[in-house]
Amino acid sequence: MNRVERFYDKVLGILTNGELWINIGLGSVKIITIFVLSTIFLKIVKLALHNVFKVRQKAALRISERREATLLRLLDNVVTYVVYFIAIIMILDTLGVEVKAILAGAGIVGLAVGFGAQSLVKDIITGFFIIFEDQFSVGDYVRIGNFEGYVEEIGLRTTKIKSWTGEVHILPNGSINQVTNFSLNNSMAVVDVNIAYEGDIERAENVIRELLAELPAKYEDMVAAPELLGIQSFGQSEIVLRVICETKPMRHWFIARALRKEIKLRLDEHGIEIPFPRLVLYNRQEEAEPVQKTMKSNA
Fold it and tell me: Which family does it belong to (predicted)?
């Protein structure tokens, strides 16, 4: 019973210690205040960054919109990490934890981990050079290895690519060895038009050229008027004419579909047929029968 009574007295002394509860209350208030202020400060800093980039959009000297979007996304992430790291340090200090000892120990541990986390360091260094050299930016359409799609996010460690079917691929920056960027320059739409051998090729070319001259006023994604190169190849039942058109970046697929539709409708208006596969049957039996009759007569 003596042990129970002593334990009971100890617990009762703790519960009735007014100074302890005051310290707990003040600590809780400080922690909540730190969390609220860090959240407000983070929103203010992000708002300021967005406003700075909006002002730069109106400046005479400015970087590309692609790079602005990438830098803005990256700065948002960096500011978030820094603010919350400082908030956690302040909360630990409020709880009476020796922050200086933790930081000193973290430096030693970080040095030891750095040797074992070489892939992480490689990811961060590669991510830095991707952004610094502007190899690709958020919104670009790229091909990295077996993955192809629009860049959703570029971080110091990973890059997110969203394919046209909706999948999001997360790639470590250190694994990015070769990148094909389709969004830096204008694209080229290529359309092949089949004309029957029996058709009038010169008339078909004139009809197509007249149509191509009208299309830039209809499609703003065309950088220049489409061009008819001429006969591309001879098929089994058709002559292939090739049409090319320079378009804005990544709009070549849309323009190619539009060209096919416009050319088909215009050829139909002028009665020019697009050929279909033809099959010619050759019956050898019909030639074999006369030969057999001749042989019988000679016998």
Answer: Belongs to the MscS (TC 1.A.23) family.
